[in-house]
Every structure is written in C-alpha cells, then in structure tokens.
Amino acid sequence: MRLLFLAVLRRHTGNAVTAQRVRDHLEAAGHVCILKDAFDFESPSEISNFIKAENLEAAVALHLYRGGRLLQGNGIPFGIIFGGTDLNEDVNQGDKNKVMGKVLEEARFAVAFTESMKETAQRQWLKYRKPDRSHWLSYARFMAQPHAKDKIYVQSQGIATVPNTAFNWNTFLQHSEINQSADNLHVFLLICGLRQVKDPLYLVDAFSEWHQEEPNIYMVIVGPEVDPVFTREVKAKVKRTPGVRLIREMAQEDLHAVMKNCFALVNSSVSEGMSAAILEEFVQLAKRLVSDPALEKTIVANGREYVRKYHSWQEERQTYRQLVRTLERSPED
C-alpha cells in the first residue's frame, strides 16, 4: 500500500524522530511510506493534489491539528497519532478544538502515547451521542459505526538508542567551554528545540546559583533554533549566566553519547506528550542523582526494565503494522 505520512519535520525534534521511526515500521511491513512535512502544505486541496499525483491509497498524520486537518475530505482512509500540543494546548482553542473533533471522527484509528492522553481525547470529543431516530438513514449510519471511543489505542513510544562509539566526551566539554576534569564534573543536560513551550530558561537561574556554590555543576542546553525571536532571548540569557551553556543541535547518535556521559537529564517543557529524550536517558543508564550505590543500582535497573517492558521498539512496530491494516479495509469490515 502507498501511504502518505504527515508530520512536522523540524530537524532533530521529537516529532521528527517519532515520524521517522514509525515510517521505518511501516516500510518494514512492505508499504511505501512517503514522509512529508505538514508545513509544506497550506490546505487540504494541496494535499489532495499531492495524493492524486503520487497515487496514494491511505495516510497517517502525527498531530491531530497540524497534520490531521489537512487529511479531511480527501477520500482516502487515514489514522492519527496524537502529538502532545494538540491535546495539551490546541484543545483549549475553540476553532482548533472543533476542527480536531471532526478529524478524529473521520479517522480510522488514533494512537495515544499514554492512558492520560487517551482519556483527555475521550473527554473532549468522544462523548456518547444519541442517534437521530427521526431519519432512518441517519439512524442506520449511527448503528453501523462502532463507537468512536473504540478507535483510540494506547501505544507508548518505542525506544532504541545507538550512541556514537567514536564520540569524545572531553572534546564535547571543550567545545562547550567547560574547562574542568570530567572525573569530577556533573553536567545536567536539557534537550529541546528553542521555543517557548519547551521553557528552557525555567531552570537556568537555579543551576547558575548552584554552579556558583559548586563550580563542578553545569547545565547544558542542546537543541535546534526553532523560534528565531525566542532563540535570541535564550542566547542573551545564557551568555550572561555562569554555569549554563547552549549547544546547537546534534546528530542523534552523538546526542545519545552525550546522554550516556552526562550526570542527569532534565526537562522543563510546559507541554509534553511523551519525552523520548527521558526514555533514551534511562536506556543509556546515565548516573542518577543519588549517593547510595545500592539505591542508584535499583533505580537505574528498574528504570531500564520499565523502558524495555513498556517502550519496546518491537511491540511498537507490531502495533502500527496492525493499525495500518485497518486502512486497507472498508469501514464496514
């Protein structure tokens, strides 16, 4: 089957990484999956022309509003993957809420990363509606369709990390202008695109105060420059703040190597669907914020086991393979 996959594809961002991983799952199942940036299209009509030109049979969108709204009424079956900001922010805007409700009604399936995300969607849109008994066709359609609540599936993000084995931690520290021995250094890592919703400045002052008390404490922010205006604000703040460094985006393999060497990962996002960076940190078994070796061992072991059990890359692949099969069938099957 020829599939269109719509997502916001800013380089080295969570959505882009998730979209590429899911695309790999679908292509491994034998489908042709064309991954496109939702921001490249301004209207459903542009998507319709692209679908016809590429002879596409079905579609998947990551983010109910940014991707999903473009797929409405295009005549091909599609599924949705909730992104995070669609349920945490866009849902509070009346016009977007209405559009997303219609998208969800038309979608064959929807994937939530957590049970709480599923519950949020159900509270917003998947309410029981009474069929219109006054018109036989309306009633027949209602009775023929499974209830909308049955179309939302929970599938946590599957995580697989491949750190760059040639990565040099000392070189990274030098480039970050951290001129201390790595043996006695505690680097706290914040990975995010530079935009307001990720709130990277939230912890800056606290870490700077800590650094001035203990000079071996550093906070390093790593991520792409997404919002130009906000990026300038972040750069200006970091430049005048001791103990805090800002590093531009990195290749994923290098980023995984940094996680492996850092002291701990932090996250200050005000809207998070499911932070892949935090899950990857568990996999890499970075050092924990505990002084008791036995407790540290327990926390790390439990964290790693949790990721393996609930964020299995293989299970995620199987889930998307099964869901995409629903796009091959007619709604009545």
From TrEMBL:
SUPFAM superfamilies from the UniProt entry: UDP-Glycosyltransferase/glycogen phosphorylase
Pfam families for this protein: Glyco_trans_1_4
Top-level taxon of the source organism: Eukaryota
PANTHER family, per the entry: GLYCOSYLTRANSFERASE 1 DOMAIN-CONTAINING PROTEIN 1, PTHR46660
Protein's recorded name: Glycosyltransferase 1 domain-containing protein 1 isoform X5
